[in-house]
Amino acid sequence: MSDTGEWQVARRRKGVARKSKSLQVSSNSTSWQEQLDIGKIVKRIRDTVSELRCEEFLQEWKEHLLVARSAFLLKTPENKFTRNPSDQQKGRDGRLCQQLECVCYGLGSFSSCVSARYQLAMLLLLLDAGQIPLKDCFVYDPAFSSGERDVLTELGLTVLTENEEGKHLVTKPTLFYLMHCGKALYNNLLWKNWSIRCLPLIIIIGNSFSGIWDRTIERELKRDYGYISQAVSVCEERQLSCPSHLISIFSDTAVITFPASNLNRLPQSTWTEPPEPQYQHCSDLEITLRATQS
C-alpha cells in the first residue's frame, strides 16, 4: 500500500484494551533459564516465523511498514540522507531509501512465554520486510536470561547491555518495536526525541496512542505522560489487524509516525527545553528503572 493519503491523524476513539508488559525482571527466573538449549529455542522461533508467514494478516503489517518507510525515500541528490552512501539501500521497488535501524524493548522471556515468542518471530519478519539487517536491530529487556541473550545473538540480533529506560536518541530513521510496553517507556522515548528534527525519523510499531488516550483519564495522561498526550494529536496512526486466535498477542497494535507537517502545527514553545519525565504520581510505572549510583 503506497498511498500515504490513506493515513489518518490519530484521534480519540475506542480501542481494544490490553495490559501493557512491564519491563521487570521475573521473580520466577531460575537457573534453568540460564542453561537453555540454544539450538532448540532457535528452531522453535524459526518454526514460529514459518507459522506466521502463512498468516494472511502478515501482508497487511508488511505493507503498513513499507508505507511508513517510504517517508525516507531519497528523491533528489540534495536530500540530506544522501550524504552517507553506505546508509543507502534500494527498496524492492528499485527506489533508493535510507537504511533503517531497529530498537526493540520489552519483548519478555520468549523461551518460556508463547506470546513473547510470537512477537519475536513477528519482529524477524518485519526486519526482513523493511530490509533492516539483523545486526542493526538492538534488543533489550531486563527479563532476558543469559541463555535468551545467547539465543538472540545466535539469531543475529544485537543485544543491548544498558537499560536505556526508552531514552534512545535517534540520529537516523529508526523503527521501534514496542509490543505491549508500558506508557512510561513510550513517554520517555518521545521526550528524548522531542524535536521537529528527531520525531520524523521515528516509526513505532506498538501500543496504539489513541487506545492509550481512550483508556487513560485525561488529566492523568496530561500530568504523568505529557508527551504521549501531545503526540496523539499530531502523530499519524494506522491500526494493525490480527486474527482472533492471536488477539492476546497482537491486539491494539498500530504503526505510528510523526510527519513534520503535523509537528509544525504545534506552538514553537512546545519544543523549548522539554522537561524530563519524573512520574512522581505513578504507583504502577510498568517499567524497570536502571540502578542509580549511590
UniProtKB/TrEMBL annotation:
Q: Give all residue intervals belonging to the SRR1-like domain.
A: 100-256
Query: Which protein family is named in the record?
Result: Belongs to the SRR1 family.
Matching InterPro entries: SRR1-like (IPR012942), SRR1L (IPR040044)
Q: What protein name does the entry list?
A: SRR1-like domain-containing protein
Q: Which GO terms describe its cellular component?
A: cytoplasm; nucleus
Residues in a coiled coil are none
Q: Which Pfam families match?
A: SRR1
